[in-house]
Amino acid sequence: MNEVALRFMCDRMLGSLCKWLRFLGFDTLYPPDVNDIMIDQLALNKSRILLTRDRSFLKNARSPKLLIRSLQRDEQIREVDREFNILSISIERKLVLSRCSVCNQSLDEVTKDEINGKVPPGVYEHQHSYWFCPECEKYYWPGTHYMEILNKIETLK
Hints:
By secondary structure, the protein is α/β, with parallel strands linked by helices. Helices cover 40% and strands 14% of the residues. Helix 1 (15-23) crosses helix 4. The two termini are 23 Å apart.
């Protein structure tokens, strides 16, 4: 997979944004039950850009950061895009769906033979490209969800 220098850390208010950054192929962490100090320290130690909606947290954070102003996911994506050009990077480097949206692991490309019996028969019959998450053992393919993500990216540009 193509690695990108942009790596993000979303605070607890940005779970949906985190998932979409992963859909776009960006290494994005979302620590569930840690306090702001720990999130900031983790972002700093792991060279990640902290994304937060919390203005008081932002003032005290030492890591590179971006305040996300909107409550709406699509506008949040646009805010990150205005700052870091993530939509173009994702498309140009073919990063879309290169990470597991659940655990953030990079996906491995697998052959059709390798997934025989591991995906629904209709998917096996009609799809030709597959990816596997070695961490949570989920399989992915470019079905309707993939097309919806590509269409959403186009509307966000």
